[in-house]
Structures are given as C-alpha cells and as structure tokens.
Amino acid sequence: MSLGLCATGVLTSSAAQAQTRGGTLRAIVQPEPPLLMLGLNQQIPTQYVAGKIYESLLTWSPELQAQPGLAKSWEISKDGKTYTFTLQSGVKWHDGKPFSADDVVFSVDKFLREVHPRARVIINQFVASVKALSPTRVEIKLKEPFAPFLKAFVSDNMPIVPKHIYDGTDYKNNPANQTPIGTGPFKFKEWKKGSYIILVCNPDYWQAGKPYLDEIVFNVIPDAASRAVAFERGDVQVLRSGDADNVDIKRLKALPNVQYTTKGWEMFAQQSYIQMNQRKPPFDNVKVRQAVMAAINRKFVVDNIFFGLGKVATGPVSSNTPFYSSDVPAYAFDLKKARALVKESGVDLSKTPVKILSYPYGAAWDRLAEYTRQSLEQIGFKVEIESADAGTWSKRVSDFDFDLTFSFTSQYGDPALGVSRLYLTRNIVKGSAFVNNQGYKNAAMDELWDKAAAATSNDERSKAYATIQKTLVEEVANGYLFELENPTLYSGKVHNLVKSAIGLNDTFADVYLDK
After folding, report:
1. Three-state DSSP class for residue 449
2. In what order do the strands lie in the sheet with 238-239?
3. Which residues pair with 84 in a beta bridge?
4. Is residue 130 helix, strand or coil?
5. Where in the numbering of this chain does the Solute-binding protein family domain appear (predicted)?
6. Would you call the peptide bond into 415 cis, given omega within 30 degrees of 0 as the criterion?
7. Contacts of 240 (CB under 8 A, 6+ apart)
8. Are 114 and 106 in contact (CB under 8 A)?
9. Which of 63, 117, 405, 436 has the smallest number of CB atoms closer than 10 Å to its CB?
10. Is 62 exposed, middle or buried (0-12, 13-18, 19+ CB in 10 A)?
11. Is the pLDDT of residue 9 over 60?
12. C-alpha span between 31 and 53 (Å, rounded)
C-alpha cells in the first residue's frame, strides 16, 4: 500500500491513531458524470465524486441531526429569522487561497441564488440578506421563519464555492468547472474521459490528520456485467446502487468478506417517477396522464425489474419523509380502466406518437423503458425509445426536449426542500434537469406550497402538505413509481464508508483501508 502526501499527516487523537493510513480506494462512477462542479450539476454521479471535493456548512447524522462542517457552530434567533454561523479556522481552498466568510456570502447570495435548481427556490423565497460579520462569522437573515432551513446545508444542496474563482465570471462557462476547486479532503487530479477520475488527498485539509486515503480512483465501466466482475475480482472495492444489475446483488452480497448496507440515504429518501411533458399533446390532458398510471403495474416494476429493492410510491412525498400523507387517490393496475380514461380524454393517441427518453442509470431503467413502452402500446399509444447518456439526458430534460422520461430525486428531509421544486410554477426554468421540467401549473398549489413552507406550526404544515399530495396525485403532476432502496456492497477491508445521512456522497475523510 502506497504512502502519499497524507500518509505523514499529524494524528490528533487516540481514536485517529487506530486508523490505517495510505492506500487507494477503487470505486465505480456510472454513468460518467457530465461535470464535477457540484454547484452547477447535481446528478447522482456528480454528487458521488464531487462530494469529496466540495463541502457545505453542515453535515448530517443518520438521525438527521446537524453536525459541524465548514461551520463549527451556529445560533438561531428566538424569532427563527436570523442564523449566525461561526466558521472553521485555517481552512484553505485547494489552490491554497484562504477560505473565509466572503466565500459563504458569495455562494449563498449570488452563485447558488442564480444557478442552483433547489437552493435558489429556498434562497429566493426566504433569504433576505447574507453578510460577513467577520472573516469567520456569517449572518443569514430570513424574510420569515423557515423551520427546515438548516437542512438546506447539504454538500450538493448548498456547496460552498470559491469566490475568487467565480465572482464576476460566466459561472456555467468558467474554465475552473473542468478542474474543480473545493475545501474537501480530496483534490481533483485527473479525468480521462471514458476511463477514470482520480482524486488525491488534500494535505492541507482543515481536519488535522485526515483524510487517511492517498487517493480515490473512480473507474468508468459502461457494462453492468463487467462492473460486477470487477468487484468480484477485487479490482474495485465499492459497488453503489446501480453499479451492478439488481439481479446480481444477492449473489455478490454472498461473496466472502463482502459487507452490505442500505444505510446512508436518510437525507435523500429517493423517489422515482415518470415525467410527462405537459406542454403538448397527449400529456397536456390529465385523463391521459391518469391512464398512464392505470396502465403501469408498479408492483411488478418493483418486484421484477428492480428485484424488490423499492416500495411502491403513493405520491410525491416519500413515506420516509416528514409530512407524508397516504390519503391520496390510488391508481390500481387496470388496463380496462386505462383504456376508458383514454376514451374519456377524447385524445386520438394514434395521432400523437410519443418517444420515451431513456434514463441512463443502468439496465433496470432500460428494462423499465421497455416495460413502459409495452404497457402504453396496450392502451393505444404509439411509442419509440430514444437512448441517451447522462449529459444528453440532462441537457434534453433541462431544455424541456422530451415527451416522457424517468427520474428520481431526493427529498432532503422536508417537502419544502426536496419536493416543492418539482411543482412550483416559478421553477419552470431551463437549465436544470431537477426542477419543474414537466411544466405542471397550479396557482392554488403554488400558494399552498409557500404557505406550508413558511408555517411555524407542524400541524398547519401537515394539513397543507396533505392537500398538496392529494391534488398532485389526482392531477398526475408526475407519475409516481416507487421509493428507492439503495444497497451498497463493499470489501471488508474498507472501513467508515457510510457514516452519515448522505452516505457515499459524503467526503470520505474518515474512510481507511486495511493493509
């Protein structure tokens, strides 16, 4: 095992001294991310790799309790409108420049407010001002109380970016997007497209003695069977959900010295759905969207396409997220009912052929596209499937250039953080694949979303979200499929891999390998 720059770092506690230093962790990133600038792209593979480069003010325990990140402490005023963060001292950007409160002010008040699909919804609605009280203290004043505000500070939701690199530039075309610079325990070294991404330890990381690893290599292996073989042979030590075909999980899990967990997704509570472009026929007709729901056997999808790694969704809010309500219309699998709904719609499906834009996250999603095509053809649709890589999928969905596609998104511990962004009329904005891309519009729901987000009473919020869920399911604002269950398999030689509510997307500062 190699000894690199970080292998000689100072250890500061007896607990730290128990860790083995050095070595290379080999993992897989698939599909290959289009970008590693976490403030501009939040696709799952980007989160996985760039979560080691960028950090937020806070981290989160599996119980969703806030823990120190770039902020070592924080205070909330009695009226719930002023948040004061005290920052870690001695933090440097990967280019050696000092990190300060000015970076936080720039990130929240300018960069994320403009470009981030989730953060900008919260910032624009609630944040009145962001200012530096000193180089290590930041004050954020809200227009009104917003109970889940702290939960917005997750690395992919509120990544802190370097002001000295981005201020005054065209954010999306800044050359630094190709060589990301953060404050995290690992620094970008090399990206050979189609082959690998290499991150190396940050010897100046603000947590003394960390990270323990010398480097992380994310291998790009397009074929699912080849990824499974690479894990079996020990060429890679970590398999994320989707890296291997779900049919192989049980076999790989049984291999000697393989560890298995479904933890590390508490913050995300990922939910999958069908996006139907509501700007044009046939999906501008609610009866057609309801027919799609009746035509798809979602239990079959979970049991046979995703091999039981999921739970049929009832609506837009995951059952693992606060304010979930089961009091929503049910869509049973019923082809006869689906055909009747098509007839009620008055839409001639033969005159509105549709294309399914495939979701580039592995064989199970390809099979879901095939199954959906067959299901829709049984009720009169004419359907084609278009293939796409991750970059193409993101671009086309961001530009609203699709008929029907699939997606899954994270809920971030509160509907105001992870769900509302997909349905607010004001969030029908080009440039992100994780906003209201389908074009759903309902002014009454917009008002209720805002009322629920701003309410200080949990009872008031619960009632508002219950109404929202019932309406969105009735109107098929999206076609709700299932709640994802995400397995992680890893070598027994790997330690501290999943420690927080964001699991594999966290920094890996504490990960170490047996020699």
Report:
1. helix
2. 238-239, 488-491, 258-261
3. 75, 139
4. strand
5. 66-424
6. no
7. 27, 28, 48, 486, 488, 504
8. no
9. 63
10. middle
11. no
12. 19
- Work out whether strand 271-276 and strand 186-192 pair parallel, antiparallel, or are unpaired: unpaired
- Cα(3)–Cα(14) distance, integer angstroms: 21
Which tokens go with 306? 């995703």
Strand partners, 188: 199
Q: What are phi and psi of 188, to 5 degrees?
A: -65, 130
C-alpha closest to that of 334 among 298, 310, 302: 298
Sorted by sequence, the CB contacts under 8 Å of residue 77 that are 6+ apart come out as 83
- The pair phi, psi for residue 124, each rounded to 5°, is -70, -30
pLDDT tens profile 344-370: 999 999 999 999 999 999 889 999 999
* Per-residue tokens: 439: 């074009």
The two three-digit tokens of residue 8, written as one number? 């000689």
3-state helix, strand, coil in the chain (%, to 5): 30, 20, 50
Q: Is residue 463 over pLDDT 90?
A: yes
pLDDT of residue 13: 42
Reported as a single tens digit per residue, the pLDDT across 418-444 is 999 999 999 999 988 999 999 999 999
Q: Report, as an integer, the average pLDDT of 452-478.
A: 96
Structure tokens given for 330: 């049910």
* Sign of the alpha-carbon dihedral angle for 273, 274, 279, 284: negative
- Edge-to-edge, what's the strand order for the sheet holding 196-201? 24-28, 215-219, 196-201, 186-192
CB atoms within 10 A of CB 398: 18
Residue type, 229: V
Q: Which amino acid is at 421?
A: R
Residue 5's pLDDT band (cuts 50, 70, 90): low
First to last CA, the chain: 7
Number of H helices, E strands in the chain: 15, 21
